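Researcher: Good morning. I'm working through a list of sequences from a screen, and I'd like to move beyond sequence-only analysis. For each chain I'm collecting a predicted structure so we can compare shapes side by side. This is the next one on the list. No need for commentary yet; just the structure.
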Amino acid sequence: MTTKLDKTTVIDQLNKILEFELAGVVRYTHYSFMIFGYNRIPIIEWMEGQATESLGHAKEAGELITHLGGHPSLAIGNLLETHQHDIANILRESLLHEREAFIAYLQLLELVKDKSVLLEEYARRLIAEEEMHQGEVDKMLRNPGDIASVSVT
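Model: Good morning. Structure tokens for this chain:
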């Protein structure tokens, strides 16, 4: 590795990720309560899985923060919701959340690239996971037979 790691900036970004992932735990748990209809059971199981995964990501970020000598945040990221609870709206909110997480991990990668193998590999792994999640939600938003990706802003 050629240049020195700015631990303070990296810890700040990891705390942002920690807060974001904790918000994901709350968000996906809330969504699981708000699913109704014929497909409720598989959808709530998926939402609960997302909440569990977000908690795992939060724990991992917290461990990296303390590994670097930092203090994990007790805050939780943005929990704003549209209060529109049909499945399509919930999935659109989920897709936006996944895109924001993807950006947070990209920002971390820029901070640690060529400075820490540990943090670079962590960021790359989570970027790949977030890309997969975006793809899953995008597919869930499509009508059966639709090939084209859904555009959510």
